[in-house]
Design goal:
CATH superfamily of the largest domain: Transferase(Phosphotransferase) domain 1
Radius of gyration: 26 Å
Number of strands: 11
Shape: globular
Number of helices: 5
CATH class of the largest domain: Mainly Alpha
Structural class: alpha+beta
Oligomer: single chain
Order of helices and strands: HHEEEHEEHHEEEEEE
Helix content: 25-40%
Largest sheet: 5 strands, antiparallel
């Protein structure tokens, strides 16, 4: 009996030691993770404040983790997921872990649109809500990457239907009227009914996206300009916009 009691006591001691080690390891891991998260959060807050000033605090909820965008959503920005390219950079289709489809715009190093346009787009479109404006879901900003995450609009942009391949179908009159009305509603909201007064300044077929029902979403607010609510005219010392050519016409999209 004494031998059995001693053996049982030794086993109990071993179990207690193992449990204590596990608990201590978990506590140390959680503590380390908490410190890392706190440091990382402070670091990201500093980045937001540096780039967006006092408005940075309101944008923290729109933060996207680069790992999520790179690995889970776009498969490390694979060519198979690339759906377009513009002045900002390349655009990729992505799927988040919850199954939500997104469009990811990644600023390229050679982009004609730089950090100023990136910040302008975040500050403006994050505060605008309308069915005819593309919705900004979030962004990723660090020293290496500048990424915008939007709702995914399945149809291509309007220029695809107007100037694309002859193999593509033409828009019927009902669809054309629907698109014209949608553009008018979006612009009227920006200029009259939004709590901000915004001039897009780069409205063109490439920046008009279409969904499965041919409802449109105005996109790309990098060159947009916010003006005073009661302001009806202004001045500028530079011309902005996009010069684009089609097979049938030459158009110059210029907005002061």
């Amino acid at each position: 009996m004494v031998i059995y009691a001693g053996k049982h006591k030794g086993q109990s001691r071993t179990i207690i030691i193992v449990v204590v080690l596990i608990v201590v390891s978990i506590m140390l891991t959680c503590s380390g993770y908490y410190c890392w998260r706190r440091k990382h959060s402070k670091s990201y807050k500093a980045i937001l404040e540096k780039n967006f000033g006092s408005e940075g605090a309101t944008l923290e909820l729109l933060k996207f983790n680069l790992t999520t965008i790179e690995a889970a959503a776009t498969d490390k920005f694979s060519a198979e997921n690339r759906i377009g390219r513009g002045g900002f950079g390349e655009v990729y289709k992505g799927i988040l872990p919850d199954g939500k489809e997104i469009a990811v715009k990644r600023l390229s190093e050679s982009s004609r649109q730089g950090l100023t346009e990136f910040k302008n787009e975040v500050l403006l479109i994050a505060r605008l809500q309308h069915r005819n404006l593309v919705a900004l879901l979030g962004f990723c900003l660090n020293d290496q990457e500048k990424i915008l995450v939007y709702e995914y609009v399945p149809k291509k942009s309007l220029d695809f239907f107007l100037f694309g391949s002859k193999k593509e179908r033409s828009l019927n009159w009902s669809e054309r009227f629907k698109i014209i009305r949608g553009v008018a509603r979006g612009i009227l909201y920006l200029y009259e009914y939004s709590h901000l007064k915004v001039i897009h300044r780069d409205l063109k077929p490439n920046n008009i996206l279409l969904d499965d029902e041919m409802n449109l979403k105005i996109s790309d607010f990098g060159l947009a300009r916010m003006v005073g609510i009661n302001e009806t005219r202004g001045s500028t010392n530079k011309i902005v916009g996009t010069l684009f050519l089609s097979r049938t016409q030459t158009s110059l999209s210029l907005y002061p």
